[in-house]
Design brief:
Layout lengths: L1 E6 L2 H13 L9 E5 L3 H11 L12 H10 L16 E7 L3 E7 L13 H8 L3 E5 L7 H15 L2 E5 L9 H8 L6 E5 H8 L4 H9 L3 E5 L3 E4 L2 E4 L11 H14 L4 H18 L5 H13 L2
Parallel strand pairs: 1-3, 5-6, 6-7, 7-8
Antiparallel strand pairs: 1-2, 3-4, 8-9, 9-10
Length: 300
């Protein structure tokens, strides 16, 4: 679950909070807030469904979490969601559309391992066109989970997509780098900060070269996206919501890849989908993206 709090600029917000704190507590009024589905896998699944793709979510949550999933992901396959767990919750402080600070409780997904998957889950993976593995960074059993899935995917010739999420808090970067080198990994989706951390290179170009030796790199930044030697500029839009932008970009990238879009068209499609999301705060549809691309192409 994501609880987004849209604040003005960072300095102004911190000063206001300091004033409230110094007088012993009280209200900070007039702050726009929203509740939505949360977590990289859930966000990606919702976005894929909005584009018309079939998507099954495999995760673990509480009874309340499952009820919320049924509300926010009405058309997705939730038959593989595990119950009896703990709800994951993130409070995202968004500062003037410039940055966000996410305060997270991972819930049961902090300890979701390969042994949490049953035979039905593996049969689902086996018949899927693509397996997306998301948010290694928040999962203490993430390395074993991803390793087991990559072994399975390699054996059954399944295309794989991996988005680690921000790994800066993890100490086991060598384990993550070993996953990136796994022959079962086909696509690594990431932003520029994750690229630098995983590759160990401060320069983006050097980081791409270092990681492309192992798998395809699908990189998204606020200025451009990159894949297979192609670079496509992002669309300048006003920002309403930042939290979940990377998940929406990844979903559109996955969708366009499965639909066979040429590289530059795939990147342009993903950039447009993410631009619509951050500018409206809502998950766009395929028609929304098509209209947006037509308008930007004609200049209307």
């Amino acid at each position: 679950m994501d609880h987004c709090v849209r604040l003005p600029g960072f300095d102004e917000s911190i000063e206001k909070m300091r004033e409230v704190h110094m007088r012993g507590g009280g209200n900070y009024l007039g702050v726009e807030q929203s509740l939505s589905q949360g977590g990289s896998a859930t966000n990606t699944c919702r976005a894929l469904r909005s584009l018309g793709a079939d998507c099954s979510l495999v995760t673990k949550t509480s009874e309340l979490g499952y009820a919320l999933l049924k509300h926010f992901l009405k058309s997705a396959d939730l038959s593989h969601v595990k119950l009896g767990g703990d709800l994951g919750l993130t409070t995202a402080l968004e500062f003037g559309g410039q940055s966000n600070v996410m305060i997270s409780h991972e819930g049961s997904n902090a300890d979701f391992g390969f042994d949490d998957l049953d035979e039905e889950d593996l049969r689902l993976v086996e018949r899927s066109d693509l397996l997306a593995m998301l948010n290694w960074s928040h999962n203490r059993k993430g390395t074993a989970l991803i390793k087991g899935l990559l072994d399975f995917a390699l054996e059954h010739k399944i295309k794989t997509f991996f988005d680690t999420n921000d790994p800066s808090s993890r100490k086991d970067m060598d384990d993550l780098r070993a996953l990136v080198r796994h022959p079962g990994l086909k696509i690594l989706g990431l932003n520029e900060n994750e690229l630098k951390l995983i590759s160990g290179k401060d320069d983006i170009e050097e980081g791409i070269v270092a990681l492309e030796r192992h798998c395809r790199i699908d990189l998204h930044t606020k200025d451009f996206s990159y894949s297979l030697g192609k670079r496509v500029g992002s669309y300048p839009v006003s920002v309403k919501k930042l939290t979940g932008a990377g998940d929406h970009w990844s979903a559109a990238d996955i969708y366009a890849d499965l639909m066979g879009y040429p590289t530059e068209e795939r990147l342009s499609f993903a950039n447009a989908f993410a631009a619509l999301y951050v500018s409206t705060g809502e998950t766009p549809t395929l028609r929304d993206v098509t209209n947006f691309l037509e308008i930007t192409k004609t200049g209307i």
